[in-house]
Amino acid sequence: MLLDYPCMETQNVRKVILEVRAGTGGDEASLFAGDLVRMYQKYSQRKGWGFAIVDASESGARGYKTLVAEVSGQGVYEILKHESGVHRVQRVPVTERQGRIHTSAASIAVLPIVEAKAVEIKEGDLEVTFSRAGGPGGQNVNKVETAVRILHKPTGIVVSCRMERSQHANREKAMEVLRSKLFEIQREQATGSVSELRKSQIGTGDRSEKIRTYNFPEDRITDHRIGKKFHNIEKILEGDFDPIAKAFVGK
Asked: N or C: which end of the chain has fewer CB within 10 A?
């Protein structure tokens, strides 16, 4: 189902939804997804942007199966929009005992947050469920059904939020994510199912569908779209992301 949403000047967008998902590669893919999350989080701190986690499925101490965050600030969409796609990593995982290099992947989606009036969503199209939230937030979060899961029945899109302290706040955040995803469907003039839209935007998460490769043994990051290479991987993952961001200025 495609709705006729009005156009939006994306250069004025000051809030985005950042979605990170571990792809092929098992635990190492989750660890790499965690590395990417922390890179964007630290870069946001350097830029003075807000970075708020909306929902997350953790994997171990430093990994994520999925993470959804809201990033806000001047120029946030113009910089982060180039991150959508499959990111591939080549390195020796911490769990590897024989020193072999593994290749894993994580996918990124960056969606502009749109105003409520830009996307009409009928209450009858929603299936809303509540549950107890795990993770950070204190005892209140774990004792009360504050976590929200919303199914948009016409498209099959499912969004959730469990990081806020109140049911109302989590519902508002989840609706924000849903509006962004519905807006993106129309903006990209996608046809067919939502799964086809996701595949066209960020791929299936397979290692071969990469936009960027992080090669640790050679200390090199290669962006395959612009054919440019960057070094000092560890520094970049610590939030020094400007060399990559600036490479896309004017692209």
From this structure: C
CATH topology of domain 13-116+193-247: Alpha-Beta Plaits (3.30.70)
CB 149 within 8 A of CB 160: yes
Asked if residue 154 lies in contact with residue 125, where contact means CB atoms within 8 angstroms, the answer is: yes
Residues 207-222 have pLDDT tens digits of 456 999 999 999 999 9
Dihedral through CA 65, CA 85, CA 11, CA 4, nearest 10?
-90
Alpha-carbon distances of 163 from 58, 109, 172, rounded to whole Å:
13, 20, 12
Longest Cα pair distance anywhere in the chain, in angstroms? Answer: 56
For the chain, the structural domain boundaries read 13-116+193-247, 121-187
Enumerate the β-bridge partners of residue 108.
Answer: 20, 85
